[in-house]
UniProtKB/TrEMBL annotation:
Signal peptide: none annotated. This is Hydrolase. Residues 263-282 are annotated as: Disordered. It comes from Streptomyces kanasensis. Pfam families: Abhydrolase_1 (PF00561). Residues 27-133 form the AB hydrolase-1 domain. Keywords: Hydrolase. GO terms for molecular function: hydrolase activity.
Length: 282
């Protein structure tokens, strides 16, 4: 287990280098979602397949999530974007990377691509959207509902989640409830910076956006195509928001095909450092 101390927060980072050794074809950085998510969602689904396909894989727990530090405050989108920059610097990734973001992880990826276009080779976002004014209103309502439910009758809320979604999800929800109740995340995330249409249009790298066909977010597909000059969208039949969990094989294949088409030739691909290399304090 490796930890990176950014000076603001201690982040849990995992890196998988290409199976069998040799130079990496490209580097993919995997960004997970908000509250009940962590890097484990990738580690136990698509990450090993990416390494087996010759990719350098970097993933980490967002601040407040998984094994990363949980500060009392400081959860604006800029802070998550700063953390991504710190991880790329800390692990020594030399060239442009392919960012793969699930849900809120995709929102962080959009923000980083707008801030540091020279560092991003492409984006793959799963059930995600850029941070806009409408997004902020939606997130504020969602986070407030979670905060209220976990503050007024946590056990009843967890019993309902366990009955409808299973015990594992209820355990994740308990941790998410503590995060919302004990930190300023519910206030900070919606209050963070948003992107207007002009800033979204400034994202020039190739973008692949995957949505469950039955998800509310599927309506984002035509909007993204109209704003982003190099955007491809795919709607996955029969799926809603939990695309990564319910159809990891589809996500794996889509990302591998996408990165293969947008990676540099093998002789110019950056070399990966050894797996498990120390990037910070333990």
């Amino acid at each position: 287990m490796t930890f990176l101390d950014t000076g603001r927060v201690r982040l849990h980072v995992q890196r998988l280098t290409p199976t069998g050794g040799g130079p990496a074809r490209a580097t993919v950085v995997l960004l997970h979602g908000l509250l009940t998510d962590s890097l484990a969602s990738y580690y136990f689904t698509v990450a090993p397949a990416f390494a087996a396909a010759g990719l350098d894989v970097v993933m980490y727990d967002h601040r407040g999530h998984g094994r990363s530090g949980r500060p009392a405050s400081g959860y604006g989108l800029d802070a998550f974007t700063d953390d991504l920059e710190a991880v790329l610097t800390g692990v020594g990734v030399p060239g442009p990377v392919h960012l793969v973001g699930n849900s809120y992880g995709g929102t962080v990826a959009f923000s980083y691509a707008q801030r540091r276009p020279e560092r991003v080779a492409s984006l793959v976002v799963v059930e995600s959207e850029p941070a806009t004014a409408a997004w902020a209103v939606k997130l504020a309502g969602l986070l407030e509902r979670v905060r209220h439910a976990m503050s007024t009758d946590e056990e009843a809320a967890l019993d309902w989640i366990a009955a409808h979604h299973g015990g594992h999800t209820a355990r994740l929800a308990r941790s998410a409830g503590r995060l919302v109740r004990d930190t300023t995340i519910a206030r900070d995330v919606p209050a963070g910076p948003v992107l207007d249409d002009a800033r979204i249009r400034a994202i020039r790298c190739p973008v692949l956006a995957l949505y469950g066909a039955d998800s509310d977010l599927a309506a984002q597909a035509p909007r993204l195509r109209s704003l982003l000059p190099r955007c491809t969208t795919e709607l996955l039949p029969g799926l809603r928001h939990s695309v990564l969990v319910e159809a990891p094989g589809l996500v794996r294949d889509a990302v591998l095909d996408w990165v293969t088409r947008h990676a540099p030739p093998p002789e110019t691909a950056p070399k990966a450092v050894a797996a498990g290399a120390e990037v910070g304090s333990r």
